[in-house]
Write a structure and sequence with these properties.
The chain is α+β, with helices and mostly antiparallel strands. The longest helix is centred in the first third of the chain and has 18 residues. The N and C termini lie far apart (55 Å). Keywords: 4Fe-4S, DNA damage, DNA repair, Glycosidase, Hydrolase, Iron, Iron-sulfur, Metal-binding, Mitochondrion, Nucleus. It is an enzyme of class 3 (hydrolase). Adenine glycosylase active on G-A mispairs. Involved in oxidative DNA damage repair. Initiates repair of A*oxoG to C*G by removing the inappropriately paired adenine base from the DNA backbone. Possesses both adenine and 2-OH-A DNA glycosylase activities.
């Protein structure tokens, strides 16, 4: 069995826990950012409406910065102020509003869950973290904890990237913070720390601390409300203490939360020695040929053909210019040929590879794919009858294109 972590890594002193809670909440009350979802949650008397407002914000904030989310969130809540309103929306409408926010499956799952609440749960939101996670698609452990604590007052902790960083620094946890064993320990700590009378505020305070003070690089340690509880800061200030055993000596006993022996403390990094993360996997490279087919519309304005992507996989259900993946190392001449063959299905007529005009290349980085779009254009004369047996497709003006559910990558194209 793995060795249990020494007490130095954990929060076990009730007096220290109470002091940390008080300091953090006092700081949050004074310094928290004014964010629209917080304002809604603070003023909404109905718990289920409050939960919906928090839920939307938490899904949007997954892997997306606050500054980007604010505008999307305001537009979303204006269009669908209640869960019932969202349940009646179409996926196309959801994708249109979500366009540019990335990770599009989030919006799709959010709507699926809203429909489930309305159709299967009599419009009543689950009220505990356990039920939220079990019953709602797209709601994981963190999101469930955030909704339950902020909206329903359940004394349950949360662990996201910001909380991981704060806890790892507070207790000098240098083991790989993405490993399941370490994550489980961090959840134990978060549940032990959460304030029983103000769980939602405490969880938001912990996340706020990581987002604004205990940041990944150049943390503002002097402004930290809980700096007196931070072992990483103490180590930075005083170095390794004299013969009294402390957290810095845990590694000798095979401590599962200490940094590995191969990665000793780097004094130049200070508190940013923590947390340690596994090496990031490099995104794979991919190339896609895409063609902007253009025709003259009935009012003389140019129109462009867009087609809908499959309902599953990357950018599911979004619209794009006709595109197809390219094999690695394909020569330019061969690229034109395979693209011309692909376009023949859409135009219903032969497409001469030489007629494709090369425009340039567009690079777009997805979380796991370094995508290069090889862009061509092709003006078409006369009317083109679209085959209804193919994927959904339509002709749009430039204005209609930008109002459609298209990805940021296609807007670049």
């Amino acid at each position: 069995a793995p060795a249990p972590p020494p007490a130095q890594h954990l929060f076990s002193d009730p007096a220290e826990i109470e002091a940390l809670r008080g300091s953090l909440l006092a700081w949050y009350d004074k310094c928290k950012r004014d964010l629209p979802w917080r304002a809604l949650a603070a003023t909404e008397p109905d718990a289920d409406r409050r939960a919906y407002a928090v839920w939307v914000s938490e899904i949007m904030l997954q892997q997306t910065q606050v500054a980007t989310v604010i505008d999307y969130y305001n537009r979303w809540m204006q269009k669908w102020p209640t869960l019932q309103a969202l349940a009646q929306a179409s996926l196309e409408e959801v994708n249109e509003l979500w366009a540019g926010l990335g990770y599009y499956s989030r919006g799709k799952r959010l709507q699926e869950a809203a429909r489930k609440v309305v159709s299967e749960l009599a419009g009543q939101m689950p009220r505990t973290a356990e039920d939220l996670q079990k019953l709602l698609p797209g709601v994981g452990r963190y999101t469930a904890g955030a909704i339950a604590s902020i909206s329903y007052g359940q004394a349950t902790g949360v662990v996201d990237g910001n909380v991981i960083r704060v806890l790892c620094r507070l207790r000098c946890i240098g083991a790989d913070s993405s490993s399941p064993a370490v994550i489980e320990r961090l959840w134990d700590m978060a549940n032990a720390l959460v304030d029983r009378s103000r769980p939602g505020d405490f969880n938001q305070a912990l996340m706020e601390l990581g987002a604004t003070v205990c940041v990944p690089k150049a943390p503002l340690c002097g402004e930290c409300p809980v700096k007196q509880h931070c072992r990483a800061r103490r180590r930075k200030l005083f170095g390794k203490p004299a013969p009294v055993p402390d957290v810095e000596d845990c590694g000798a006993g095979g401590c599962p939360l200490c940094p590995p022996a191969a990665e000793p403390w780097d004094s130049s990094l200070g508190v940013t020695n923590f947390p340690r993360k596994a090496a990031k996997k490099q995104p794979r490279a991919a190339r896609t040929a895409t063609c902007v087919l253009e025709r003259r519309g009935c009012h003389g304005a140019p129109e462009y053909l867009i087609v809908q992507r499959p309902s599953s996989g990357l950018l599911a259900g979004l619209w794009e210019f006709p595109s197809l993946p390219l094999a690695q190392g394909l020569q330019e001449e061969k690229q034109r040929e395979v693209l011309a063959d692909h376009l023949r299905a859409w135009t219903g007529r032969p497409v001469v590879a030489g007629g494709l005009r090369f425009i340039g290349e567009v690079v777009h980085i997805f979380s796991h794919i370094h995508q290069t779009y090889v862009v061509y254009s092709l003006p078409l004369d006369g009317d083109v009858t679209l085959d209804p047996a193919l994927s959904p497709s339509r002709w749009v003006t430039e204005k209609e294109f930008h109002a459609s559910a298209v990805s940021t990558a296609m807007k670049k194209v």
